[in-house]
Amino acid sequence: MKRTTMLTTTAVCVLAGGLLAMGPKIKREDDNKARVELNALEGAPFAVESLASLTDWSLAQPLTAESMKNKVVLIATTSADDPQSIMMLNTLARLEREHAEDGLVILAVHGEPGFESIEEKILDGRIKVQVAKDTGGKFIEAMHVDNHPDVFLVDRAGQMRYADVSNRSIKAAVVGLLKEDAETAIANAQLEASGVEIPEPGMPEIPAELYAAADWPRFNDGNLNALNYQGKELPVALGGEQWLTEKVDLEGKVIVLDFWATWCGPCRKAMPELDRLQKKYKDELVVMGVGGQRDPIADVKKFIRSHDESYSHVYDENQAVYRAMQIRAIPHVIVLSTDGVIRWQGNPLSSSFKGALEQTIKVDPLVNALNEG
Q1: DSSP secondary structure string, 221-286?
Q2: Statement: residue 8 has pLDDT above 50
Q3: How far apart (Å, rounded) are the C-alpha atoms in residues 85 and 336?
Q4: Taking the model in full, what pTM does it have?
Q5: Fewer Cβ in 10 A, N or C end of the chain?
Q6: What domains lie within the chain, and their CATH numbers?
């Protein structure tokens, strides 16, 4: 198991009349014996010449200095016989779907040994991101890779910003770098290198009056097949669930809890729309499928692996919220505003669900404050 160390990116700094992008706390792997060498790579221009050993590009789109210009580039070293690498490839495919239009470029690098296995997965359509073979192993050597997967991030200024970043920090690192322009990236990297640590501000303070005055959607007055908690907080707090997909930050987001099961046909029917909504509102919304309704966790994991939804999944073996709300039929969704109040609940196949969710996102005071800020 890899251990991690926390390094903090810059928070806010005035430069040329503007604010530098807010940086999250990014963890690097610290069990790599070459951590000193990896730290030396960070903040320096990425060695584009290190890509020269890469061949057999699966999408026939080799990375070059020109194609990397003003892009955030994520490079992950992988191995076809390593389960964590395969999971990483799925994570990278999701990141690419969510952020390619924002300027994210992803490349998976595989060594020569076992490359035929990764090629089979590519041909079968099981790997969506671009893969290249490290012929001779020069790239892997230059990056001081100790085991797979190792992840490296290059910013819009062409600097190696994060070398061997922790898996749990990948998304935060990507999102943070995408918010920077090239000038900001240079300034932030310089501050990081000097050890500057400025505490991140918390979420904006939203007066309760703004939540009370918001034009929330009309409550669902149909048959809920559950206790009606609309206008109230959850009867049981979230937190006891097991994440089956990458854990995401819920703060400042409208949340949809989708209670479902693999054996439930209507649940599966609702999934494409939930997926579309998550993609459409990726910065404002977190959709969480909540499993555990007469479903072994192994069945839920298998289902998730074979489907390509962009939203998150958790498993609650105790069915805490489900039982407290006495939900009697699934699918059943709960729409939570950023103050933790249920603004709508019911069947996601209902004609009023999408409108209620979009209205919640539209009028939520914290969502609006974050979008304006």
Answers
A1: -S--SS---TTSB-SS-S--PEESS-----TTSEEEEEE--TT-HHHHHHHHHHHHHHHHTTTTEE
A2: no
A3: 34
A4: 0.55
A5: N
A6: 4-193 (3.40.30.10), 208-372 (3.40.30.10)
